[in-house]
Amino acid sequence: MQHIDFFQILKRSILIVFLVIAGVVLFTFLCLAYARFVEPTWLRVKHITLSNHSTARIIHISDIHFAGDTQYLERVAQTINREKADFVCFTGDLVEDVAFLQGALQFIAKINKPVYGVPGNHDQWAIRSFDKVRSTFRATGGDWLGNTPVSVRSNSIALLTLISRQQQTPPEYKRILLEHYPNAVEQLQGDRFDVILAGHTHGGQVRIPFVHRFVLPFDLDTFDKGLFHTPCGPLYVNPGIGTFYLKLRFLCRPELTLIEI
Q: What is the pTM of this model?
């Protein structure tokens, strides 16, 4: 009788272990399938209010990394066009490969609002001349920012870069800094902005609880994604529209941010 009980317990234990392993394997497979086929194109629209007396509604996008998925970008453009906003701010990384630049610019051209932008690190590496980029952004009514501040007079806003930030702007204008790297805020001692917009991090792209800071990309540092209050003003780090290296997102949906300032 004791032998029978032992074998029954052994069989039951083996079955439990098998079911646990099967459950873990199935859960992992479902998470990978979700991260690969669902979340990378599941666009989120996030609303943020930074002022009780807002004078502008801004759409912030970043890190497109266009590599041929025109249907997805078409949906992104349609979402932007449906939102009531004064203009769009783009904080870098149109493409990784210049072969896809034309497609990325076609996306920008479909936006029915002025688009203002700055380059990201991949743009700097991939694109030799920014003439087409500049002309496309200007055709929307916006601009490709550089060495001088750009004024949006209808909203009393000055758009600035790291290079142009110390130039004079009308004192009554709100100041918005566009910068690809969020860690650049550490260079802004003594400066003050109504909002600093950045990208680059993709929010980690794969945010596995407790370990997401060690996953793509590798230089998240302090400002990974979302809103941060700094001595220079509020910093918003957009997790991006596209993906880098692996077309995966997990607990970090692509985002279009609507900011009232």
A: 0.91
- Residue spans of the domains in the chain: they are 1-37, 44-260
What's the whole-number mean pLDDT along residues 41-52?
Answer: 96
Please calculate the CA angle 154-156-158 and round it to the nearest 5 degrees: 115
In one-letter notation, the amino acid at residue 126 is A
| Separation CA 199–CA 183 (nearest Å) | 10
pLDDT reported for residue 11 = 83
Q: What is the pLDDT of residues 71-100, one digit of tens each?
A: 999 999 999 999 999 999 999 999 999 999
The CATH-assigned architecture of domain 44-260 is 4-Layer Sandwich (3.60)
Q: Kindly write down the DSSP assignment for every residue of the chain, as one continuous string.
A: -HHHHHHHHHHHHHHHHHHHHHHHHHHHHHHHHHHHHTGGG--EEEEEE--TT---EEEEE----BSS-HHHHHHHHHHHHHS--SEEEE-S--BSSGGGHHHHHHHHHT-SS-EEE---HHHHHH-S--HHHHHHHHHTT-EE--SS-EEEGGGTEEEE-TTTTTS---TTSEEEEE-S-GGGGGG-TT---SEEEE-SSGGGSB--TTTGGGSSSS--TT--SEEEEETTEEEEE---SS-SSS---BS---EEEEEE-
pLDDT of residue 216: 46
pLDDT (tens digit, 9 = 90+) per residue, 120-143? 999 999 999 999 999 999 999 999
